[in-house]
Amino acid sequence: MQASPHSPSTLIESYSMPTPQDDPAQVMRGLAELTRKRLIGQDAAVEVFAVEAYRHIALGPLQRRPGVFLIAGPNAEDDHLDLVDGLVRSLKSLGGLYKLAGIPEEDIDQIFSSSPGAMEGTSLLQALKDRPDGVFVLQDIDQAHPNLVTRLERIWGHGYIIDDAGKPRSLADAMFILTTELAEGEIGEIARTDPDPARLHVECLKALVDAGFSASLLRHVDFAFGLKRLTTGELNHAYYERLAALVASHGLVLEEGGLDARILLHAMDPTAEPTVPDLMLPWDNLSDRLAQLKAAGAGTVRLILDDDVIRILRVESATPQWVIDAFAANRDLSADGEATDE
């Protein structure tokens, strides 16, 4: 059985941060921006997820049951989990991530065991007791054993669990994120053609039922988010626009043709040789280095791939192209990725 509160690596770490009491629109913008750092090219789904997640959080004790949300559609490089990443980094703590596909029948009881040592990681029931306001990700819910789904539906319907003292404990602040790859092709096309969130929610549910998804389980889903299918050209453009926007946010200009094509290649296909682990992850580091370059008086920059990191090169407008190319190829680079100045 694979069940762990801190895996896979896309949900690297959970942050126990209080729910901000700031302006709701500002909070939702912040959540959307944080999520877009990982999930590129799915802005519509990110925006809707931010709204629905915050809406559940804002209701607080007024609701009687946990929020149940479903992510469907294309799932390249665990995009489904990337949609949750901003939430567990900012507004909610990660209660657990459970891979439900292929759990043997004899392990069903273990996942709901009250004993902390009943299984590798933490049992779902124990995790709910320890963190009743957390985010619980149930991966491949369509492949879960029917008995497990029945128990989950009972928890969602009641809206509470019985703690170790024998008292009911509300789960109104908990959030369950379900994922499925069922009907991902059809949903990916629907999301391309109909961006309206309410209609997409309904169409996702219809497509899933037609594909054999449990209608009983779907009755508990508050909202379904469909990721759209992206062509190679659209994904390429999305990555370029994201990087160009990051450069522009620091008052810098990305030189025309100044984005190394290998960056886009690895962003779209992490298996490309030579492999570059986690190319897009050091986003904050890249932002900090852009800020430093701006403070040093730079105006135009280019981004190149050097070893396994994105390097930033300052470009002087009057510098001939052949000098720029020679600089990129031969100039020594400092350890933090900036070109060293003589």
Spell out the key features of this protein:
342 residues; alpha/beta; Rossmann fold; disordered N terminus; disordered C terminus
Report on the architecture of this protein.
The chain is an alpha/beta fold and 342 residues long. It has two domains: 2-226, Rossmann fold, CATH 3.40.50; 232-330, no CATH class. Helix content is 42%, strand content 16%. It contains 13 helices and eleven strands. The strands form three sheets. The chain has a six-stranded mixed sheet with strand order 1-3-4-7-2-8, with helices on both faces. Strand 10 and strand 11 (309-315) form a beta hairpin. Helix 1 (24-36) crosses helix 3 (79-90), helix 7 packs antiparallel against helix 8 (197-210) and helix 10 (232-248) crosses helix 11. It is elongated, with a radius of gyration of 23 Å.
Between the first and last Cα atoms, what is the distance in angstroms?
57 Å
Q: Name the overall outline.
A: elongated
Task: Tell me how many strands there are.
Answer: 11
Structural class: alpha/beta
The CATH architecture name of the largest domain reads: 3-Layer(aba) Sandwich
Output the CATH class name of the largest domain: Alpha Beta
Beta content comes to 15-25%
CATH fold-level name of the largest domain: Rossmann fold
Total of domains = 2
Adjacency order of strands in the biggest sheet: 1-3-4-7-2-8
The portion of residues assigned to helices is 40-55%
SSE string: EHHEHEHHEHEEEHHHEHEHHEEH
Output the CATH homologous superfamily of the largest domain: P-loop containing nucleotide triphosphate hydrolases
Number of DSSP helical runs? 13
What Rg, in angstroms, do the CA atoms define?
23 Å
